[in-house]
């Protein structure tokens, strides 16, 4: 997981017009413009289905259901990415607060934010708070 402020070049690079053709307007707003979907409305907020969560923009594997937990925060929460290189962590000082943005390392799409030290009973004490609209779930066995 890179947390360097100078981002590596994404493996998938599309123009804004190409991204707009690939994503619907809500997906584009979140994935490419770092918007946030409303809490408690996302497709995967309370999903218990076992499987792999991939980036909706580029299909790179990001998280697994085995690392998903109930945080009751309104968005899907994971305590660790599927692979340490699946995401990039980037300082985010927008909106008058200090946060850490989570990006897909493959296409640099915005996924959400990661928080630490909130007291959740997880192995990492981290909460990757991810927009459902940034993800696509591939259930096990399909």
Keywords:
six-stranded antiparallel beta sheet, oxidoreductase, peptide-methionine (R)-S-oxide reductase activity, EC 1.8.4.12, Metal Binding Protein, Guanine Nucleotide Exchange Factor, Chain A, 9 strands, globular, peptide-methionine (R)-S-oxide reductase, 11% helix, 142 residues, Met_Sox_Rdtase_MsrB_dom, three-stranded antiparallel beta sheet
Question: Can you characterise this structure?
Answer:
Keywords: Oxidoreductase. It comes from Nocardia lasii. GO terms for molecular function: peptide-methionine (R)-S-oxide reductase activity. Its EC number is 1.8.4.12. It is an enzyme of class 1 (oxidoreductase). This protein is 11% helix and 30% strand. With 142 residues, the chain is mostly beta strands. The protein has a single domain (16-139), classed as Peptide methionine sulfoxide reductase (Metal Binding Protein, Guanine Nucleotide Exchange Factor, Chain A). The chain has helices at residues 16-22, 25-33, and strands spanning 51-55, 61-64, 68-69, 77-78, 87-92, 99-104, 110-116, 126-130, 135-139. The protein is built from 2 helices and 9 strands, in the order ααβββββββββ.
Intertermini distance: 28 Å
Order of the strands making up the biggest sheet: 3-4-8-7-6-5
CATH topology: Metal Binding Protein, Guanine Nucleotide Exchange Factor, Chain A
| CATH architecture level-2 label | Beta Complex
Say which CATH homologous superfamily is assigned: Peptide methionine sulfoxide reductase
Task: Write down the secondary-structure element order.
Answer: HHEEEEEEEEE
Beta strands, count: 9
Low-confidence stretches: none
Spatial shape: globular
- Structural class given helices, strands, pairing? mainly beta
What value does the average pLDDT take? 93
Q: Please give the domain count.
A: 1
State Rg: 14 Å
The percentage helix is: 10-25%
Largest sheet: 6 strands, antiparallel
Beta fraction of the residues? 25-35%
Number of helices: 2
EC number: 1.8.4.12
GO molecular function: peptide-methionine (R)-S-oxide reductase activity
Catalytic activity: L-methionyl-[protein] + [thioredoxin]-disulfide + H2O = L-methionyl-(R)-S-oxide-[protein] + [thioredoxin]-dithiol
Protein name: peptide-methionine (R)-S-oxide reductase
């Amino acid at each position: 997981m890179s947390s360097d402020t100078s981002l590596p070049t994404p493996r998938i690079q599309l123009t804004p017009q190409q991204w707009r053709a690939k994503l619907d307007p809500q997906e584009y707003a979140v994935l490419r413009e770092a918007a946030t979907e409303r809490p408690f409305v996302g497709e995967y907020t309370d999903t218990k289905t076992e499987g792999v969560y991939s980036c909706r923009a580029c299909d790179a594997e990001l998280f697994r259901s085995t690392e998903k937990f109930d945080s009751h925060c309104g968005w899907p929460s994971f305590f660790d990415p599927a692979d340490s290189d699946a995401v990039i962590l980037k300082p985010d000082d927008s909106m008058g607060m200090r946060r850490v943005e989570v990006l897909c390392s493959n296409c640099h799409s915005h996924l959400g934010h990661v928080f630490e030290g909130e007291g959740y009973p997880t192995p990492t004490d981290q909460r990757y708070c991810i927009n459902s609209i940034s993800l696509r779930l591939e259930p096990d066995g399909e």
